[in-house]
Amino acid sequence: MEKLDVMEYVAKEYEKIANKISILSSENKQNKPFFAIFQIGNDPASNKYVANKLKKLDSVGIDVRLFKRGEKTDEISLYDLFCKKSDLEFEEVPYMVQLPLPKEYEELTNSLTSISWELDVDGLGISSKERFYTNQKSFIPCTARGIRDYMKYIDSSLEGKSVLIINRSDLVGKPLQKLLLDENMLVSVAHSKIPKEKLLDVFDKYDYIVSGIGIPGYFKSEDIPKGCTFIDVGISFNDKGKMCGDLEITENKGDDFKYTPVPNGVGQLTVLSLAKNVMEAYYGINN
């Protein structure tokens, strides 16, 4: 059993991004890239994700700013929060709305994601989805991009290999299915409504398992077949407040397989992909 060193890969990629931003800024005589995050509420998981984004993006030379309001946001402050985008300072600035929104604002999700694809570095807006799934130029949703890029880093050729994606969300399962089909993989998709025993029955048919169920320790290390690589997307918190993944490493560690840890796994890949998307949005997607 091998725990994959995701952080080693992430550090190398951040160094590349920082160097590229330095070169492009110098060549174009521009300021460093500017990026805005809009957030409503104090969801603990969202707060951690946002804090990590602020820290990592700043470290590579991206000027990232957070515009945040509490859950008791009235109509005027909602306008103030999101209509800042219409100010001259923000007209051509990549930005993202941190999801999920508090329940009382969920109906705003579609309108808030009606962002032009050129600035939609999260890749979740309506225009971005349409372009992505019709093979037009767009930004790839960050978690899916991060997983695809890392799989290509640890495997010289994904073509002809098999993957089971246990997630069907717009953030992970759906875009990742397309990305890995584009890599000529055999792709199967399942989800949390499939009984666990049915999933376990087919695990040994796959080279990769990407799991995003979101239940701490849903699978045990002895469930993972020999030679498989388990990509753990299921970030959640147990009753003690500890961050956990879908995979629990038990005393009976199981067969010889590889896995990404939680924390310091897919969450880091997601933020890395956001940094790549911001850089590409600012300097041009083809740079």
Order of H and E elements: EHEHEHEHHHEHEHEEEEEEEH
In DSSP terms, counting alpha (H) and pi (I) runs of 4 or more, how many helices?
9
Would you state the CATH class of the largest domain?
Answer: Alpha Beta
CATH homologous superfamily annotation of the largest domain:
NAD(P)-binding Rossmann-like Domain
Could you tell me the mean pLDDT?
87
Proportion of β residues?
A: 15-25%
Specify the overall morphology: globular
Strand sequence of the main sheet, in spatial order?
1-13-9-7-5-6
Q: What is the count of structural domains?
A: 2
Q: Any low-confidence stretches, pLDDT <50, length ≥5?
A: none
Going by CATH, the architecture of the largest domain would be 3-Layer(aba) Sandwich
Structural class: alpha/beta
Characterize the largest beta sheet: strand count, sense, and whether it forms a barrel: 6 strands, parallel
Question: Could you characterize what this model shows?
Answer:
- One of its GO terms (molecular function) is methenyltetrahydrofolate cyclohydrolase activity.
- Keywords: Amino-acid biosynthesis, Histidine biosynthesis, Hydrolase, Methionine biosynthesis, Multifunctional enzyme, NADP, One-carbon metabolism, Oxidoreductase, Purine biosynthesis.
- Residues 10-122 form the Tetrahydrofolate dehydrogenase/cyclohydrolase catalytic domain.
- Helices cover 37% and strands 16% of the residues.
- The chain contains nine helices and 13 strands.
- The strands form four sheets. It has a six-stranded parallel β-sheet, covered by helices on one side.
- It has two domains: 28-124, Rossmann fold (3-Layer(aba) Sandwich), CATH 3.40.50.10860; 142-267, NAD(P)-binding Rossmann-like Domain (Rossmann fold, 3-Layer(aba) Sandwich).
- The longest helix is centred in the first third of the chain and has 23 residues, at 6-28.
